[in-house]
Design a protein that fits this description.
The chain is built from 16 helices and 23 strands. By secondary structure, the protein is an alpha+beta fold. Helix 8 packs across helix 9.
Length: about 500
């Protein structure tokens, strides 16, 4: 009788590099739930207070001050249905995937490229690190994943983002030396995700690994070209294979040995020196030693980060930080292409903002922001994003601000209401627990008689959406997506 082989058999090849029994045991365990606080909308302290009310125990992610593992006794409702997540105050994100943005170290005012951005966890993390200032280009090539990326950015309230739909290799030639920092979170065989998807091990044969490594080399080289001289490039994957990790970066360093240098990950935004990064560097050195002994690589070991699933009880991950010392290709300045979005005439923008102020006592714009439009949809973005010239038509930018109505009025969007609704000085309606529950179930509710017209619904210091008040009743205009998620 032939016995079925273990689903973890593909991991046997890593016996020379790590404790194989520990690797398989960790890979068989469920993945710990983890959130990242979105500081564009809230604070760590506010989320900690809410977590205490929910009975959550939060344990800090060692390398990310906004990241927390969650332990909770009551698991009857998925974390994804909690209001903090639905409103974009927290992002469900695996702990090890928070590491590349931390190492990228984006700062306010910079121009940053996320080459393979969907589903948006790293894009929104980078955006929060930039405090809404500067520009982040979030790129994705697949239409379905682009929709997810766009939704993530809008729910997180990212106004300084421009979405593009191109293959990653395009940026190397078309936007050479345009970016202060580039994140290349490359497509891969995803072996590191086995704890949440056992099928990940079905796609790691030699042919597929080789195919992915060739693609990764092309994308990483494009990232190097796209970075400014003096700029930072972070290469990362969620797989375990040496060919897609150390091998790809070492080949790139061989090709650009005079133009690139490896940066010590411990000096790249890691605030906690006891977070296991030194162990992760040592683990990568073991793999690099094997590659040097069994391939053409002869350069000294480099300080890359390799996180095995058992190291920190997370997904498996790889990360390398490079600095560009010199140009790698001639710069071609290509003509800019008009955006899908258009700027308003100053008088028109001022009139729109005045109408919103009349309704809510504020126009909700922060310093450095402006309004643009695509048809009758008004979008909120930043002056820096609107001014950035690109040789490609964007997919979208900013967040929806308001919709023009046939009678000339403007109605704010749900995205704006939940992002900045607590800034409103009037035109609000505070509801209690029972009313909120009815709204989340898609029902209309009774409200105070003096509430009239479009209002922002608030609950316990959170703006949860919009409603239309009339004669003591509130017509429910909460996001259909949020209501369906909450009830479905």
């Amino acid at each position: 009788m032939v016995q079925n082989s273990s689903p973890f058999q593909p991991l046997d090849r890593y016996a020379p590099f790590t404790d194989l029994a520990a690797l398989k045991a960790a890979s068989a365990k469920p993945l710990r739930k983890c959130i990242r606080v979105n500081t564009l909308k809230t604070s760590v302290a506010a989320v900690q207070e809410r977590a205490q009310e929910l009975g959550w125990t939060l344990t800090p992610v060692p390398w990310c001050t906004e990241g927390f593992f969650i332990d909770r006794e009551d698991r009857t409702e998925a974390i994804g249905k909690e209001l903090l997540h639905l409103l974009g105050h927290v992002y469900l994100q695996e702990a090890s995937s928070m590491l590349p943005p931390v190492m990228l170290g984006a700062k306010p005012g910079e121009v940053v490229l996320d080459m393979c951005a969907a589903p948006g966890s790293k894009t929104t993390q980078i955006a929060a690190m930039m405090e809404g200032r500067g520009v982040i280009i979030a790129n994705e090539v697949q239409e379905k994943r682009m929709w997810t990326l766009n939704t993530s950015c809008q729910r997180s309230g990212v106004t300084h983002v421009i979405l593009t739909k191109k293959v990653g290799q395009w940026f190397g030639k078309q936007m050479t030396e345009k970016f202060d920092r580039v994140l290349c979170d490359a497509p891969c065989t995803a072996q590191g995700t086995v704890r949440k998807d056992i099928d990940a091990l079905d796609y790691c044969g030699p042919e597929n690994i080789g195919k992915m490594a060739r693609l990764q080399l092309e994308i990483l080289e494009a990232a190097v070209h796209a970075a400014k001289v003096g700029g930072t490039i972070v290469y990362s994957t969620c797989t375990l294979t040496p060919e897609e990790n150390e091998g790809v970066v070492l080949q790139t360093l061989n090709k650009f040995s005079e133009q690139l240098e490896v940066m010590d990950p411990r000096q790249c935004g890691i605030r906690n020196s006891e977070c296991g990064i030194t162990k992760a560097i040592e683990d990568s050195n073991i793999v690099q030693k094997y590659l040097r002994e069994n391939s053409e690589f002869r350069i000294p070991h480099s300080e890359f980060v390799r996180i095995w699933p058992q190291t920190e009880d997370t997904e498996g991950f790889f990360c390398a930080v490079l600095r560009k010392k010199a140009s790698t290709r001639p710069v071609e300045r290509l003509p800019a292409v008009p955006r899908r979005e258009e700027r308003f005439a100053r008088a028109t923008e001022a009139e729109i903002k005045k109408r919103i102020v009349d309704m809510y006592g504020t126009d909700f714009l922060h310093e450095g922001e402006l309004l643009v439009h695509r048809g009758d949809l008004v979008l909120l973005t930043t002056e820096a994003a609107a001014a950035l010239m690109m040789p490609v038509v964007d997919y979208s930018m900013g967040i929806p601000y308001a919709k023009g109505l046939k009678d000339g009025r403007f109605r704010i969007t749900d995205e704006l209401a939940v992002a900045r609704g607590m800034e409103a000085k009037q035109g609000t309606l505070v509801v209690g627990d029972s009313d909120l529950q009815e709204l989340l179930e898609g029902q209309n509710i009774e409200c105070r008689e003096d509430a009239q017209g479009d209002v922002i619904v608030q609950w316990k210091g959170l703006a949860v959406g919009r409603g239309l008040a009339k004669e003591g009743f509130l017509k429910n205009r909460l996001s259909r997506w949020m209501v369906q998620l909450k009830t479905g």
